[in-house]
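User: Structure with pyridoxal-5'-phosphate, tokens only please.
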Amino acid sequence: MIDTTSGPLGQAPAGGSFFRSGPADEDGLRLHLNETAYGPPPGAAEAVAEEAALHLERYPDSEYRALRPALARHFGVAPEMVAFGNGVDELVLLTSLAMLRAPDAEVTATAGTFPGYAASAATAGARMRALPLAEHAVPVPEMAAALRAGTDLAFVCNPLNPTGALLSAGQVRELLDAAAHAPGVLVFDEAYLDFAGAEHHHALAAVREGAPALVLRTFSKAWGLASVRAGCVIGPPELIGRIERAARALPFRVSRPAQRAVLAALARPDHLEHVRTGTAHARELLVSGLTALGLRCAPSAANFVMVDVPGDSAALTARLAAEHRVIVRDLGLLGLPGRLRITVGSPEQVERCVDALAAVLRRVRPTAGAVR
Ligand SMILES: Cc1ncc(COP(=O)(O)O)c(C=O)c1O
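Assistant:
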């Protein structure tokens, strides 16, 4: 089956959306959306199936009576410090709608990152400011300066999509200090932080202690529940209340199966450890495979790797898809031409991807050993 809503190679059509999932080719190797190779935690699929079998005619619980306390326990915060949403996608939009009320409001993020920030800013009628990266990472002093200068909303993606760069404790602190004296709202999008381990959860620890910032977490990535759409935002009750008010028109936006899946997942925190360890191992295999091809990778703490490629990265992506059914993200689409973002799959998937890339590169640069 071909997805006619997007270009043949998963690229956004002119005027189209980067959110489209690309070729609806379940046989292809999907390494373009940072899905997990490890599946959901044990029990989650059963919970979804049971919920669908028993209660398909019922609306979801709009109060999240079971889920909210479970999430609050999981994140170590009070229940009024968590809101739930139909993926982080939706929470980015709701946060934008809630916080960008002023005419001529401004959103700051980094260049080439998750396109949901710009899309949501546009929906909210706000201006988008994109800061150039500092060596593949968030330019922390510039982001802090933007907050101090009065930007209305700052999205800091940590680890950063698309490079995988991770912020240090000191950098998180610098941003939080700026936010504490700024009129705008600082949001840490930690969609990929589960891959980095609890010792990097600096923003959540600060929010737990009352820091005025928001933290976004998803169940789509390390938790392996992208299909049901579930994410949450953690922050001070006042900011959470504003987001919930922005969502009032959508009381049933998280389905019953999604709520059941997350509850089942939270009962299996061991799954995260398993995914984190497996992903770190496979990421090393991917980086060493790419390096052996003479390619340069950015250091990543996430389940993807950004790699520089010779020549036209769009054409390379197209060949990988057409000739090898390996689907990766051409970062030219996000303003970073000459680079690919490749999801870390299982070791077998890594091998298939590296072999496919080697075959395509042999044709792009027939002189063996050409390194850039
Ligand atoms: C940085 C970042 N934030 C948010 C999302 C959206 O996550 P969700 O599936 O929870 O909507 C993604 C998805 O790829 C992402 O890369």
